[in-house]
Specification:
mainly beta; Tachylectin-2, Chain A; Jelly Rolls; 2 domains; six-stranded mixed sheet; five-stranded antiparallel sheet; 1 helix; 31 strands; 3% helix; 43% strand; elongated; binds beta-L-arabinofuranose
Length: 448
């Protein structure tokens, strides 16, 4: 009871701290986040990720995964994300080893008026087994407050819980521990109803983890990261039953081009579009245990197979023209002379900038919504050591010019505001292009 009261007070405080983040990849811009479990609850998407932090002496294992709590984020449009704050912390769950820093990939599901949050971690008492086990916390709302069950689920040893409720109401728990396991859950969602089964028809060699099962048109898709070569790629197998047998069917996303060893997926349908949520080490290129969650659209072929998803920086959703448009999260970029870099390598959460270093180099950002209100000006946050001119176009790199902006010399960042003739309402692609040979750096643009 005391624990319940405390969690209410704590929850109240963190709701006050809720902040907005943005739609492009990565989705969360002020902390690390990994292993996104996305769910549609009502008319919003909720994402339950792991929360990577950097271990320090005495707090976690330096050079390894380090996670002490979970946040939940939600969005009604996949563009504006709200951080609802911490929902579970390692030192507030009675059975969890309070300094294990092992709050790995979670999942959450709705059943009969309650939200069940499943999380893997290390128990403090060896009677629950050695290594990881999986616990549950229950709430009346997707964002909490969550109250943790006093003990973990019996007979489950492993990580990466995933819960699926079939059309007949039967719930299943999947998890990883060398192999991928599955079992039916009792109606109370807190206990296994059957013995764990190894889903053994998946590729035999190489680590498999992070199961995530969904159903579409009578096909059960078991998706999972698998080390087919050196690092994880996202694969899927299909079957006629939630517990298989499954047949390996294909690759959803190739290995990270920059070598992030893990990936971890969830797949949802929201407003008639399918999305893949996954992660990459965007803010931590040199250390792949500090990751960031992303989302991109996912499409099926007519035969039900999944088209491979190519990871993008632009991500999903529509950006309003009056918001800061982070063009460094580009949809397309010229073959030469355009690149991106961190604004400040000592504080990467400040984000990125676009660098245009060659005549006509360009960067394109798709899906910007211009409202019915007349657009009177453009503001650009930019810098140029020698002074430079950029051209802003709609459509593509040879599309109509809507503004030409001179960036004064000096090299310091400044916001330059320029009156423009107006942009017709509607969703448009924007291109920022260098005119002349002097290099320019652009942080963001916005329209008023
Ligand atoms: O985040 C820690 C572990 O890395 C997850 O549990 C795995 O799925 C992998 O992403």
């Amino acid at each position: 009871m005391k624990y319940r009261k405390l969690s209410f007070v704590f929850f109240g405080l963190i709701v006050l701290l809720a902040i907005n983040t943005f739609a492009q990849n990565p989705l969360i811009r002020n902390m690390y986040s990994a292993d996104p479990s996305a769910r549609v609850f009502g008319d919003r998407v909720y994402v339950y990720p792991s929360h990577d932090i950097l271990a320090t002496e005495g707090h976690g294992r330096i050079g390894w995964f380090c996670m002490e709590d979970y946040h939940v984020f939600s969005s009604a449009n996949l563009t504006d994300w709200t951080d609802h704050g911490v929902i579970i912390t390692q030192n507030k769950v009675p059975w969890v080893k309070p300094d294990s820093y092992s709050m790995w990939a979670p999942d959450c599901i709705y059943r009969s008026g309650k939200y069940y949050f499943y999380f893997p971690t290390t128990p403090k008492d060896s009677t629950y087994g050695r290594g990881f086990t999986i616990g549950v916390a229950v709430a009346d709302k997707p964002e909490g407050p969550y109250v943790a069950e006093p003990t973990p689920i019996k007979n489950v040893h492993g990580i990466d819980p995933n819960v699926f409720i079939d059309k007949d109401g039967q719930a299943y728990l999947f998890w990883a521990g060398g192999n991928i396991y599955g079992a039916k859950l009792k109606d109370n969602m807190l206990e296994l109803a059957t013995e764990p089964k190894i889903l053994g028809e998946l590729p035999g060699k190489g680590l498999k983890e992070g199961p995530y099962l969904f159903e579409r048109n009578g096909i059960y898709y078991l998706t999972y990261p698998h080390v087919e070569n050196k690092i994880e790629r996202l694969e899927y197998a299909t079957g006629d039953n939630p517990l298989g047998p499954f047949k390996f069917t294909g690759v959803i996303m190739d290995e990270s081009p920059t070598g992030c060893w893990t990936n971890h997926q969830s797949i949802i349908r929201f407003k008639n579009q399918w999305y893949l949520f996954y992660h990459h080490n965007d803010y931590s290129p040199g250390f792949d245990k500090a990751r960031s969650i992303r989302a991109d659209s996912l499409f099926f072929n007519a035969d039900g197979t999944i088209r491979k998803v190519i990871p993008t920086l632009r991500g999903t959703g529509v950006t309003e023209s009056s918001q800061q448009i982070q063009i460094d999260r580009y949809s397309a970029i010229s073959k030469e002379g355009a690149s991106i870099d961190f604004l400040d390598t000592f504080n990467r959460f400040l984000g990125w900038k676009a660098i245009l270093a060659k005549r006509d180099a360009w960067i394109q950002y798709n899906a910007v919504e211009f409202g019915k209100k007349a657009t009177k000006s453009v503001s650009v946050r930019a810098a140029s050591a020698t002074g430079a001119t950029i051209v802003i176009r709609t459509k593509d790199a040879s599309g109509p010019v809507i503004a030409e902006v001179n960036i004064p010399k000096g090299g310091d960042w400044r916001v330059i505001k320029k009156t423009i003739a107006g942009v017709p309402a509607g969703i448009k692609n924007l291109v920022v292009q260098l005119k002349g040979d002097s290099e320019a750096e652009v942080d963001w643009i916005l329209f008023e």
